[in-house]
């Protein structure tokens, strides 16, 4: 199937090549020229793995034997073979995406991406090993390390800001096992680490290297496509629970950062799933909520450090894919992205704004509203949610209050509360003395909600990756791997 850059229809690749390359050569993102016909009703009859297989076979037909790849990716890795269960909490339904090997929603995609990359490499006859380079502000790093651990033909190197991730997140990364993994702290903040990685890609472009560089970021269609499955799964769960009938529309509210997760929901809708509104939930970094309200994307603002750090982001890469899908106009997209790069903002034409309004709604929650939501949901429903999920829940309530829309609403839950024990405990009024592991224990004592095993077992695990380097040393570090 033919993919092309969102900025130029002449820059094409088949689906296996698109997964291998990640980013198109002009900096655009790969999208299919036409979405395939899809039997969405048949998809709803399958298990989570069968759904995943049907969706990925349709979108990535140049990657063979998808059934085996899906089985290798997911079997035995999640808490249950439901992979992503849906539970009802008051008027809303919560789609729990965090029950994978690292307790992050990113596990759903990052268990699958290594399988897709390996198969794409084989399909394209690429002999060289792949080196995945990733800068992380916390969650992506661990999910990627875990997904790529001991995958033959692929190495992975993760950089994180020294002193810039939580104690739990650091412990998750520095204890990572596997012959092909490297983790290193960089003196500086997340932007320094991210810029360092971009500079390595730039320095190596066009050079003869021992390995091919690639990234585990959601700019890669192989990272985005596996996320479509859980919208189908949630819909099926609501049908099985008798909450909806086939064909009823369901709204989804998505805590959003890079716009990958919510875009997967839009792709589910394009494949036929009866999705109503897609509600975009931002934290205090509300560049997306502002954009959806007024049609101007403006990153010229300070980045706030919030209690939902995985959404602390000012440039949401995957929004480019939406602009392309809604306008079908690569030249327009290329112009907007150029303006964003050079001037820091752009405004979309009126027709495009109207198309966005028809599909999306948006609002934001600051840290105060987030904490209040965690407390309210616990007090009224005895359901413990993390800070990102609470942002989603707050915005979902705001949507229902303002629009009166009575269609069933699913809030996507993107992390375990135990990954952010300090903010969650503080919201519940618990004592904050001790380290994060002590806070996890206290949270469990207070709520009775069990700590995920992968997090509880971190305490006392040997640290294997303790290096700290300057950002200027990153290139040499990678060349020596
Ligand atoms: C990555 C992440 C998000 C944001 O998802 P995007 O696909 O980047 O919009 C939200 N919550 C958590 C916990 C995350 O790790």
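Sequence proposed for the structure above (481 residues):
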């Amino acid at each position: 199937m033919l993919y092309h850059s969102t900025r130029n229809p002449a820059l094409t690749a088949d689906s296996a090549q698109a997964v291998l390359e990640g980013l198109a050569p002009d900096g655009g993102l790969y999208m299919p020229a036409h979405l395939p016909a899809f039997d969405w009703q048949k998809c709803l009859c399958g298990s989570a793995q069968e759904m995943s297989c049907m969706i990925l076979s349709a979108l990535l037909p140049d990657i063979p034997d998808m059934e085996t790849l899906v089985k290798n990716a997911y079997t035995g890795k999640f808490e249950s073979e439901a992979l992503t269960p849906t539970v009802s909490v008051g008027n809303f339904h919560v789609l729990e995406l965090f029950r994978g090997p690292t307790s992050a929603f990113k596990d759903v995609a990052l268990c699958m991406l290594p399988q897709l990359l390996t198969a794409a490499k084989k399909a394209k006859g690429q002999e060289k090993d792949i080196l995945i380079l990733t800068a992380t502000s916390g969650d992506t790093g661990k999910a990627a390390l875990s997904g790529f651990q001991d995958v033959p033909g692929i190495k992975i190197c993760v950089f994180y800001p020294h002193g810039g991730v939580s104690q739990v997140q650091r412990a998750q990364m520095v204890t990572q096992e596997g012959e092909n993994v490297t983790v290193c702290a960089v003196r500086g903040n997340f932007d320094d680490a991210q810029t360092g990685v971009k500079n390595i890609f730039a320095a190596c472009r066009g050079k003869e290297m021992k390995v091919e560089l690639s990234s585990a970021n959601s700019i890669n269609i192989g990272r985005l496509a596996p996320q479509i499955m859980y919208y189908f799964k949630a819909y099926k769960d609501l049908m099985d629970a008798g909450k909806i009938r086939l064909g009823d529309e369901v709204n989804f509210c998505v805590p959003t950062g890079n716009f990958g997760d919510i875009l997967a929901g839009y792709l589910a809708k394009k494949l036929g799933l009866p999705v109503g509104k897609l509600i975009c939930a931002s934290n205090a970094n509300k560049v997306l909520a502002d954009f959806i309200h007024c049609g101007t994307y403006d990153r010229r603002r300070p980045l706030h450090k919030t209690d939902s750090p995985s959404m602390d982001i000012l440039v949401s890469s995957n929004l480019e894919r939406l602009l392309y899908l809604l306008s079908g106009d690569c030249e327009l997209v290329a112009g907007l992205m150029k303006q964003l790069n050079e001037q820091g903002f752009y405004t979309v034409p009126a027709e495009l704004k109207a198309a966005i309004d028809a599909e999306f709604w948006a609002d934001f929650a600051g840290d105060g509203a987030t904490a209040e939501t965690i407390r309210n949901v616990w007090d009224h429903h005895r359901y413990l949610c993390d800070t990102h999920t609470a942002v989603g829940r707050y915005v979902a309530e705001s949507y229902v209050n303002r629009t009166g829309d009575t269609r069933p609403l699913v809030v996507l839950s993107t992390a375990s509360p135990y990954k952010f024990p300090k903010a969650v405990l503080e919201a519940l009024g618990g004592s904050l003395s001790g380290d994060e592991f002590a806070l996890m224990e206290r949270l469990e004592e207070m709520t009775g909600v069990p700590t995920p095993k992968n997090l509880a077992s971190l305490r006392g695990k040997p640290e294997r990756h303790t290096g700290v380097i300057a950002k200027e040393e990153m290139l040499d570090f990678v060349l020596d791997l």
